[in-house]
Amino acid sequence: MSPAILSKRSPWLVWFLAALVWLALYRSILPFWNWVVYELLGMQTKTHLGEAIHFFFYDTSKILLLLVAIIFVVAVLRSFFSVARTQALLGGKRAGAGNLLAAGLGVVTPFCSCSAVPAFIGFVSAGVPLGITLTFLVASPMVNEVALVMLYSLFGWKIAALYLVSGLALAVVAGWVLGRMGLERYVEPFVFETKVGRLSTNPSQISWEERLAIGVEEVRSILGKIWPYLLLGIGLGAAIHGWAPADLFERYAGAGNPLAVPVAVMLGIPLYSNAAGILPLVEVLHQKGIPMGTLLAFMMAVVALSLPEMILLRRVLKVELIAIWVLVVGLGIVLTGYLFNLVL
Asked: N or C: which end of the chain has fewer CB within 10 A?
């Protein structure tokens, strides 16, 4: 029986089998690359070269699999919403409320900075205002349940609560400010031209076969456009992976330096990690006496302003918007760090 006939008779079976294959691949990539890099190639563990090579191949495989799943699911979900309905959900006339809702969605969605890009494409192409979409792009990688639980376990509920509130506030304010600046001209044109954005305004008339086709086409189209930037971003992340600037951080962003917070932000931008991944370094630096506000600003910069993320964003945003994005979000992070240092 051909796949086309199977999909027409039982689309849910196709989805189920595809999900099983995806899950099997996702669960096997770490042991597979452990075997390839450390056994087949004979690279040494806990060396910069070995860790960098392992990081590149493992993260490329992991992020590609995540992107395939996220792009497909987002595209299928978008097929249920007309442009008008999506605008009503996250847009509307009250931008502030839309920013708050987008920040809340960012917290509960497990997207890293790289996998949030397909969601950004989906929101913008469906008519969601740019500022609200950018709020989601800040909140999604920065504030997540894993980081909050780890912060709570390492530093207590007050620090975790402060990080949650400040992260949400930063995402909302940054998105609102950027939305008021009218920066749509700095978004790459293809973002507004995706297939789902041009669908009929009556999504109920779309068949399941068409929804599946939309998801597959969206995966092919978006990955075809962003893969060079993805590899470049991961390659840069691999080159700096494992670089833990504890001594450098202590020297230039210590408690005695009045410019410690902006220095910490600048040190965080080149790194490539999520909030959970950077927390062990934050704990070490805290034990060395670095103020918590400086460390939280450092962590925010790593997850919200990482250089690899900017490289990937370049495929959907023009340089001008990326520069404005960095300035607005970076200023917010610096002010948040100084505020934390005053109250903690």
From this structure: N
